[in-house]
Amino acid sequence: MSAASRRAFLLAVAGGIVGGTGLLAGCGPAGGKADAGAAGASPSKSSAPAAQVSLVAEGVGAGGVTSPVPVLRPAVVSGTLQGVVVTAADGSQITGTGAADGSWSPEEPLELGGSYTAVASAVNVDGQVASVSLPFTVTGEDGAVRAKLMPLDGEVVGVGMPVVVIFTREVPKAERARLVEAIQLVSKAPDGSSVEGAWRWIGADRVHWRPKVYWPSGTSVSVKVPLTKVQVGGAWGAADRDVTFTVGDAHVSTADTNTHQMTVRVNGEVARVIPISAGREDSDPAFVTRSGVHLVLEKHADYLMDGRTVGQDYATQVKWATRIANSGEFVHGAPWSVASQGKRNVSHGCLNVSDANAKWFFDLSRRGDVVDITGTDRPMELTNGLGDWVLSWEQWTAPQV
């Protein structure tokens, strides 16, 4: 609601209160005195000013659309607030909580698309009651904004895992800073310190939080997205979201396409050196493996490598496939190329390893583990899965236009 509209609404409410108080006075104890005065009794020597009460919901006036968890804010002049009562269209009363400042909010989210009426009442020193009603509608399912969070609640992740919030609609640039400020992220490393990091918009509908350096193992993180308290493109959030996750052991693998070796470290110690065969570089440039930091995204014990989905003429069933890029790069078992593993690159872009090594890596890996590939001129892309670490910290924190 604009400032002018809100002023007009409050003035209308104030005018209705004065008139409403008069009607209430004719029906209550004070009204009886007024009737007696009209019949000839002596009028009261003093009369307190009528209480004036106004009511808004998140700045929305009568008939407005609110969040499923609206904050109703009454204001009283010349009186004392008695309370706020909210009823649904069927007449049932909504259970809510009042704050010290008199504001009211429901204990549970209201029904999407539901119609409600809020009534705030106040009393003056003479006991005369004034009230005002505020009809409002909760945002509908079709117009509500939702959010998806990664990691999942309770998940144990790798040291490279970013926090990802994906909205169901694009966020206007003018609203992005305000929305990020509303998100609460709390981290606690094993030494009790918080982890330094920053948010960055990766697209119009998603924002990522990445630490400056890889997470310390054992860090606990909680993220709260209070969508019902903000608007996105003029639409309210359907529900708040929150997750808590922890960071597991540090699994950091470095794969060199020139030496054809992948060194896997666990908490800084070499756990295994695995012979690999990366994407061949002598024919189609689409087969060249990307260099840069990849993160483990998902795992499949059996998986069809279907090149037809990216315009290539092959389809091969493989075992122990650990995805590290959305474009189709995996670490997977490739028994047909064992003779080339550790010697030359013959794959379609994946890191081919033996079935035994693929299963060992598969069993070790979790989402967010680091696979840093070097040796080619083809760079990993920021938006190719979780490519957050292809940017330096200076690039990550640079202002976004």
Give an overview in words:
This protein has 401 residues and is mainly beta. 14% of the residues lie in helices and 37% in strands. The radius of gyration is 31 Å and the shape is elongated. Mean pLDDT is 88; it is low at 1-45.
Summarize this structure as a short list of keywords or feature phrases.
single chain; 401 residues; mainly beta; Immunoglobulin-like; L,D-transpeptidase catalytic domain-like; 3 domains; 5-stranded mixed sheet; 4-stranded mixed sheet; 27 strands; 14% helix; disordered N terminus
Give a brief outline of the structure:
This protein has three domains: 3-138, Immunoglobulin-like (Sandwich); 147-247, Immunoglobulin-like (Sandwich); 251-395, L,D-transpeptidase catalytic domain-like (Beta Barrel), CATH 2.40.440. It is built from five helices and 27 strands. The protein has helices at residues 3-25, 29-38, 173-182, 355-364, 393-396, and strands spanning 52-57, 65-66, 72-77, 80-88, 96-98, 104-106, 115-123, 129-138, 147-150, 156-157, 163-167, 184-188, 197-203, 206-211, 220-225, 231-232, 235-236, 241-247, 251-256, 261-266, 269-275, 292-295, 298-306, 315-323, 330-333, 351-353, 370-374.
